[in-house]
């Protein structure tokens, strides 16, 4: 058993509150002896924790040494004999050494194995001489220890963390010609693998151990051990490697040699005379999922490494024994670290390219386990699969699923020695059976599977925190000479349970591999002799319990024919009845009689289904069926058109597959009162039984009254038969809709037949109350997602119930009045609801257009719609609108057609021509619009335009919140909100959207821009706001629109009364969450100035992001304005009032001027006559927005207009500038600004143009000196578009003369400019 102190030592923080480990010797010794009951009780609640999963564990193949390590510490547990309280001796694992293994700073234990070394004495019988513990560290070091913790040697062969350590030892070849494998130790790193020759390692370890013994005794005698021979391979062309297996040396056949040569070398490849010997290595990880490497022998020379001795000459004792004391522990550690400060030289790796692999980009391998025969390997991955690989062919031959975090092991079981050893064939090699052991910790089960395609031969329930320990090797140092006559005492697979501390071994008998082999290959022969042999065996069994077990096993065998089961069961039953009553086992007799009854029922049903006599349907049933289906024909055809298409399925899962007798017996049982009860297990089994009983009757291929009579005589309750019938009817909806009239008639007859059974409808049932029988049908239809089948079943049940009630009323009252009952009213409501559900489900089944978002089809039923509350229907349709990617304008157009159609229906007289045009337009309407209109007509209240637009708005904003990068979703959500006519609903939805989705992100965007002082980059937007910079710009624009809608709705609320929400009468029983419209009406009113304040902020942020204007948003507001931001919109806050500080107004003005400049630069094409877009930086409404913001920010709008006029002229957009100029109030200032701009244009034409003409030079000479000096002082570089046609400049000068008064100081300068421009224009 594991000792409690092991947990305390490896997990000190989990045990001690102050996270310090007490090193007092008495505490340790009391824990070893198990006498400290107080400590055990205090940590009893920790025993269930999976502490072992955090440790590195390895077990010696001889099961005599267990190593448990965690981080820097380790504990060695050795096998000891112990006498328990009863005097019985048992083997236990007790702690023999504990200590710290790491010597480098920060390194931890990453892998460990225990290698038993064989004794070199001739008298040895196969027990190991001693066991070496090999430990790999994250620093790259590999260190070798004795079982008492003495460090023998340390090697740094690569500077990456050690991932896995694996060993291969000598195996006696079972067949002649099998390549004898060399011993080796393989070390896996992240991109390299080192293989150490086993013989070299064996000699070095022996020498180091002898040196350690001498050093402990004398302290100064040093013997240099022989160097290690190793090979180092750099594994290439694989993304990540997490585990490996060294398969060993293999030799290809001549054909494979020629095939590989032609693939690798091409047509002219040369082939060696003999196939080369290669070492095969298999790795798992990713890219590819499994990689196969082949290293040709002799391609890389072994490297010789001088052993780093860990035994110092002054080390008096390397054992951490009681003599040295636990308190001297840290001193020894420091002494060990001293010789290893200087790292040895690390040799480079020889590159080794991957030969081939199993590519699977999404699958990542986790571990690989090599079989003892070196021909197979099991691989686990992160998909919870276990894959069986054929290493010779390099293919996967089998896969198990449902084994997440699986651990693997192999069992190779030799054939038992028996009389075969004395036979003439005894010289042949002994046969071996191979089994794969899989431990699934998630399920707490240990399974054993026969190889390669065999079944599961064993399964054991174990704990969920165990560790499967499989070594995969035996003793090192064994060869073909020394192993003669040895009996190797090794265990192959062990399971360690950390909760109980028990170490279990797994043993499988050899014959389990043969049992299934004979059954598979001799099945035909077994069937021939089964009945006679089985009968005699069952009758010969004496013990009743064993006889019962044999009969149950026979009845559960799927390969046994029904006739054989009947004959054997009847023979046993007859035998029991002939015995004396006192000698018969009652349970066995009951089992025989009940199973015989069920087998007879199974046979009778089978015979009735194969009979050819089919009953005729009554004429009145045909008439009613035709009348019912005539109204629904169009709806059913549309529904069948959109039902899911056929998908891939397995033959055994098909509903048409016959039901085996064993499955029939497993689902039925006989009760003590001779009745048969159906056991409901899974839905699939229930449907299979229903198919077996009733499908042929529904198709009209079986005499249904005889079937019902047979089932009634068997004693099955009518309620269970009704449930089976309805299950089949609803489950096979697609087949039923192919011939609806015939199937409906057969369902009616079956339903009537079941209703007439005894116990179906109670005799004392009052027609004015609810019948449990018909309520069962209604409940099934209400819960069904198969709308068409449920509606047809409800119509049939309604007619049958009405006939039953009428007949009861006639027999009771004998009147001509029609019977009215609560039952029929329930059916009327149910049928109406199912008709609505059929139309709605047809709409929801319409596939989305190509390229749409798509998603799973919503399955609805009466139950789900009622549980969805008053908004459940609108919610389903809004999800469909999103899935269909229908724009808000398109949805509005469809709903307007609905309104127009309703208005036209109210007009009594219409022109023949108008009617013809309407019919033609209706024919041109696409089917999606028709289906949506049909649904809206069925739900006039639940799908009213405001109701539907509100739900669509909410659906789109929810989808946007899931993926904020899709800014279109938020834009469409706002567009849907605009189309809501009721301001009350608009205001409520706006308030909910703001508080739920918008406010938090807008706040994050504001503080981000305040932090960076400009439009943030994409990376910062994604980090703080959760979306890119482009999506954030769109988001801010939607915020402005949303707040504008909220302000308009708040203004209109007082003028319009709140709408009264209603729901269809048939759906008045809805219970569930309130609809979006109802929630909207419950919202409190908002504070208009606060909403306007936030709208102002959002507009400023949107402008800054659109035109990349540097600004800190809060710098545009005073302290009151800053404090009012992101408060609840329904509260009254202290808002800014009065005149603002001139400095603040100046900052605001500068910002708006930059925005206007950015807009003018965005529409920089003067030659384009196309209208500006409605959104984006070129939108036409930006100037008016800036003027509106200016009025709110107390900025003079005339300054903004003058700036805009100048910017437009500077850009060359003269026509737009003239339009804005009409609104400028201060013409004098504008005239002065335009005069400078005109001078810059003329200066460019006369002085700075590349193609100056002689006339221009002469004109410049004729100009007045004052004007000439003024033009030379102008800087045309301030113009963004200096090259403007002269007619435009002339027109600008004319406008300038108009707006400047004659007494203006620069009026004469303007006249000279006009003269100069006219001269230039005339000469051109």
Automatic annotation (TrEMBL):
Keywords: Cytoplasm, GTPase activation, Signal. The keyword Plastid does not apply. Residues 27-47, 894-926 are annotated as: Disordered. Residues 35-47 have a biased composition (Basic and acidic residues). Residues 51-469 form the Rab3-GAP regulatory subunit N-terminal domain. One of its GO terms (cellular component) is cytoplasm. It is found in: Cytoplasm. Its main location: cytoplasm. Residues 720-1301 form the Rab3GAP regulatory subunit C-terminal domain. Transmembrane segments: none annotated. PANTHER family: RAB3 GTPASE-ACTIVATING PROTEIN NON-CATALYTIC SUBUNIT (PTHR12472:SF0), RAB3-GAP REGULATORY DOMAIN (PTHR12472). Belongs to the Rab3-GAP regulatory subunit family. This is RAB3 GTPase activating protein subunit 2 (non-catalytic). It comes from Astatotilapia calliptera (Eastern happy).
């Amino acid at each position: 058993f594991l000792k409690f102190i092991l947990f305390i030592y490896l997990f000190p923080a989990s045990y001690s509150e102050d996270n310090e480990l007490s090193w007092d010797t008495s505490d340790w010794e009391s824990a070893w002896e198990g006498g400290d009951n107080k400590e055990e009780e205090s940590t009893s609640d920790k025993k269930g924790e999976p502490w072992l999963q955090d440790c590195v564990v390895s077990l010696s193949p001889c099961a005599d040494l267990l190593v448990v390590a965690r981080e820097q510490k380790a504990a060695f547990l050795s096998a000891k004999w112990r006498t328990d309280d009863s005097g019985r001796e048992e083997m236990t694992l007790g702690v023999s050494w504990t200590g710290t293994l790491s010597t480098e700073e920060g390194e931890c234990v990453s892998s460990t194995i225990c290698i038993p070394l064989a004794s070199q004495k001739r008298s040895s019988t196969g027990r190991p001489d001693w066991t070496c513990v090999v430990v790999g560290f994250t620093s790259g070091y590999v260190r070798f220890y004795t079982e008492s913790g003495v460090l023998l040697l340390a090697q740094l062969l690569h500077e990456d963390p050690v991932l896995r350590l694996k060993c291969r030892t000598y195996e006696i070849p079972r067949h002649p010609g099998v390549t004898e494998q060399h011993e080796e130790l393989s070390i896996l790193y992240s991109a390299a693998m080192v293989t150490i020759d086993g013989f070299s390692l064996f000699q070095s370890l022996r020498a180091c151990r002898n040196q350690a013994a001498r050093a402990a005794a004398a302290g100064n005698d040093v013997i240099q051990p022989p160097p290690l021979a190793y090979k180092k391979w750099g594994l290439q062309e694989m993304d990540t490697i997490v585990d490996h297996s060294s398969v060993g040396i293999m030799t290809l056949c001549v054909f494979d040699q020629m095939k590989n040569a032609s693939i690798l070398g091409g047509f002219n490849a040369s082939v060696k005379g003999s196939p080369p010997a290669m070492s095969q290595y298999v790795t798992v990880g990713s890219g590819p999922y499994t990689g196969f490497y082949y290293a040709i022998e002799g391609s890389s020379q072994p490297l010789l490494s001088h052993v780093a001795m860990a035994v110092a000459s002054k080390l008096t004792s390397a054992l951490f024994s009681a003599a040295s004391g636990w308190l001297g522990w840290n001193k020894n550690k420091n002494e060990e670290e001293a010789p290893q400060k200087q790292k040895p030289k690390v040799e480079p790796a020889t590159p080794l390219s991957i030969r081939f692999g199993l590519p699977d980009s999404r699958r990542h391998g986790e571990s690989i386990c090599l079989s003892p025969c070196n021909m197979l390997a099991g691989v686990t991955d992160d998909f919870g699969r276990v894959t069986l690989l054929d290493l010779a062919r390099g293919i996967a031959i089998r896969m198990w699923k449902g084994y997440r975090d699986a651990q693997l092991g192999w069992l190779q079981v030799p054939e038992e020695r028996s009389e075969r050893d004395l036979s003439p064939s005894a010289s042949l090699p002994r046969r071996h059976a191979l089994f794969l052991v899989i431990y699934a910790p998630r399920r707490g089960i240990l399974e054993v599977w026969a190889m390669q395609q065999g079944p599961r031969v064993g399964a054991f329930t174990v704990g969920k925190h165990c560790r499967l320990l499989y070594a995969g090797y035996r003793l090192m140092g064994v060869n073909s000479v020394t192993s003669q006559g040895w009996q190797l005492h090794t265990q192959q697979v062990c399971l360690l349970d950390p909760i109980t501390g028990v170490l279990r071994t797994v043993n499988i008998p050899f014959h389990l591999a043969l049992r299934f082999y004979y059954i598979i290959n001799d099945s035909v022969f077994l069937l021939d002799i089964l009945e006679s042999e089985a009968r005699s065996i069952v009758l010969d069994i004496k013990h009743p319990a064993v006889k019962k077990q044999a009969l149950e096993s026979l009845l559960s065998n799927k390969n046994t024919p029904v006739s054989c089961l009947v004959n054997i069961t009847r023979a046993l039953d007859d035998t029991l009845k002939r015995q004396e009553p006192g000698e018969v086992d009652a349970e066995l007799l009951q089992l025989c009689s009940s199973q015989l009854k069920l087998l007879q029922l199974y046979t009778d049903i089978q015979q009735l289904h194969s009979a050819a006599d089919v009953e005729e349907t009554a004429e009145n049933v045909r008439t009613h069926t035709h009348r019912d289906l005539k109204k629904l024909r169009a709806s059913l055809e549309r529904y069948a058109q959109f039902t899911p298409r056929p998908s891939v399925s397995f033959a055994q899962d098909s509903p048409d597959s016959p039901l085996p007798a064993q499955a029939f017996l497993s689902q039925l049982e006989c009760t003590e009162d001779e009745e048969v009860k159906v056991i409901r297990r899974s839905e699939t089994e229930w449907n299979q039984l229903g198919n077996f009983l009733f499908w042929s009757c529904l198709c009209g291929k079986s005499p249904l009254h005889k079937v019902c009579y047979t089932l009634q005589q068997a004693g099955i309750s009518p309620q269970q038969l009704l449930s089976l019938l309805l299950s089949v009817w609803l489950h096979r909806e697609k087949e039923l809709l192919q011939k609806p009239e015939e199937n409906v008639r057969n369902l009616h007859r079956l339903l009537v037949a079941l209703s007439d059974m005894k116990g179906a409808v109670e005799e004392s049932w009052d027609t004015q109350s609810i019948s449990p029988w018909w309520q069962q049908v209604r409940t099934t239809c209400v819960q069904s997602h198969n709308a068409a089948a449920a509606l047809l079943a409800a119509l049939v049940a309604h007619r049958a119930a009405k006939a039953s009630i009428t007949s009861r009323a006639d027999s009771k009252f004998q009147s001509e009045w029609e019977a009215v009952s609560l039952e029929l009213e329930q059916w009327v409501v149910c049928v109406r609801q199912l008709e609505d559900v059929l139309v709605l489900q047809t709409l929801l089944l319409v596939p989305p257009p190509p390229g749409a978002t798509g998603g799973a089809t919503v399955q609805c039923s009466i139950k789900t719609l009622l549980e969805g509350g008053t908004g459940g229907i609108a919610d389903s349709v809004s999800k469909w609108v999103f899935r269909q990617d229908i724009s808000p304008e398109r949805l509005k157009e469809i709903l307007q057609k609905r309104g127009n159609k309703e208005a036209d229906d109210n007009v009594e007289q219409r022109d023949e021509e108008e009617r013809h045009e309407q019919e033609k337009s209706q024919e041109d309407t696409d089917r999606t619009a028709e289906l949506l209109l049909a649904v809206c007509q069925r739900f006039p209240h639940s799908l009213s335009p405001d109701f539907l637009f509100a739900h669509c708005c909410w659906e789109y904003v929810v989808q946007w919140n899931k993926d904020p990068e899709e800014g279109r979703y938020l834009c469409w959500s706002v567009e849907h909100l605009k189309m809501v006519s009721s301001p009350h609903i608009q205001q409520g939805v706006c308030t909910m959207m703001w508080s739920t989705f918008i406010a938090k992100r807008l706040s994050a965007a504001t503080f981000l821009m305040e932090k960076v002082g400009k439009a943030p980059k994409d990376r910062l937007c994604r980090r703080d706001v959760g979306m890119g910079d482009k999506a954030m710009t769109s988001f801010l624009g939607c915020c402005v629109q949303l707040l504008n809608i909220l302000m308009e709705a708040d203004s209109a609320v007082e003028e319009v009364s709140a709408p009264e929400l209603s729901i269809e009468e048939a759906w008045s029983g809805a219970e569930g969450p309130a609809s979006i419209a109802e929630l909207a009406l419950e919202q409190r009113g908002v504070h208009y100035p606060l909403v306007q304040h936030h709208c102002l902020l959002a507009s400023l942020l949107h402008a800054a992001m659109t035109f990349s204007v540097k600004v800190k948003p809060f710098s545009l507001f005073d302290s009151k304005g800053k404090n009012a931001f992101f408060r609840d919109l329904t509260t009254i806050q202290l808002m800014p009032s009065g005149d603002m500080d001139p400095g603040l107004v100046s900052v605001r003005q500068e910002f708006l001027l930059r925005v206007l400049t950015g807009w003018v630069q965005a529409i920089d094409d003067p030659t384009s006559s196309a209208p500006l877009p409605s959104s984006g930086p070129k939108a036409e409404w930006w100037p008016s927005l800036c003027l509106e913001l200016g009025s709110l920010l107390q900025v003079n709008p005339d300054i903004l207009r003058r700036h805009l006029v100048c910017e437009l002229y500077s850009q060359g957009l003269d026509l737009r500038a003239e339009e804005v100029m009409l609104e400028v109030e201060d013409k004098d200032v504008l005239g002065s600004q335009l005069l400078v701009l005109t001078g810059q244009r003329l200066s460019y034409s006369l002085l700075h143009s590349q193609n100056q003409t002689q006339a221009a030079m002469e004109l410049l000479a004729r100009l007045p000196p004052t004007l000439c000096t003024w033009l030379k002082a102008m800087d045309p570089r301030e113009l963004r578009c200096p090259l403007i046609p002269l007619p435009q400049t002339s027109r600008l000068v004319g406008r300038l003369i108009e707006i400047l008064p004659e007494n203006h100081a620069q009026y004469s300068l303007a006249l000279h400019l006009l003269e100069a421009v006219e001269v230039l224009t005339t000469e051109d």
